[in-house]
Hints:
Peroxisomal Thiolase, Chain A, domain 1; 9-stranded mixed sheet; alpha/beta
Amino acid sequence: MTTAPAVIGVGTTTFGKLPGHSAADLGVWALTDALADAGLRAADIDGLITSRVGYEEIATEAGLRPRWISALPAEGRMCGVAVQQALAAIATGEATTVALVYGNDGATAGATYGGSGEGYGTGASLTIPYGLTSPGAFYALMLQRHRHLYGTSEQQLAAVAMTFREHARLNPNAVMRKPVSLEDYLGSRYVVEPMHLLDYCLINDGGVAMIITDAERAHDHRHPPVRVLGAAQRAQLVNSDFPPDDFWATAVREAGDSALAAADRTRDDVDALMIYDNFSCNVLFTLEGLGYCDVGEGGRFVQDGRLSLGGPLPTNTSGGHLSESYMQGWGLTVEAIRQLRGECGDRQVTGARTIQYACASPITSSIVYGTDA
């Protein structure tokens, strides 16, 4: 039996447009579900990590009295950072049972990710004259370079959106469940060419929470523990406002390999992947960086059902950011836990025992989750 800390409770709200709920309301909703899932009371939580929501609001509304708190920025890259912080707090004895809470009211609040007056449009002044006022613009440049270097085609990229939509069709909580054909993909408008509308993640409301505890307490709860076997991050922040020439491959490989080594696992042991799919092309970049295919081979790799349920490497089985919900990595992490607990019904990965999460970004992270079995 491993001595690794474990996730003992997870909770999610419904996803979509949820007027009348603030981001904190959604975070508390998810946390309440996570506490019930673990069979815990608010008084059992002695550590709290929040992202995109205020720690004071969460603690007050949920009735928490933690002795250790961390508040992280809103960016999705913080999901992996949050898990590592929880592990560190447990390892140093600062806390024994940590709640990680995320809430997002982006759809109701009318959030945008680009253009004048928004953070991406006003914070990177050197790039504005070139039209780089959104994350999509940066990724479009990366995709264009990938296409130039390696011949990546629209048909190959369409496989990502189509596969994740098929997974979402099996997920009752997914926002987008209508089937997507190749014709639908190719016929969808460009947002920033060469990226189509269906290459973009969603903007929606929702909340996600997880509870991580130390190894000794992991078995005293309602579900078998899902261990956090390995976690690692690598920062690639120099000129991070500009698309990296290597598509973050160096940082992704270092983080992915380190997480697997800490977990005493190899890529051959991984039963499914959860990849941060803010844009579909980031799935290709992450697969290449992690070493599941060679650099430049991502487009060819995703063809022929490799990422599908029943394929050799099921990926984003919930539908991911493209089709389930844009919870900035947090929803993918909960999907990993539910898969390892065998709770995913029609989209269940048979016999799943090891799942790797990875986020390719200026702060790249990878986490390996597994069962005691």
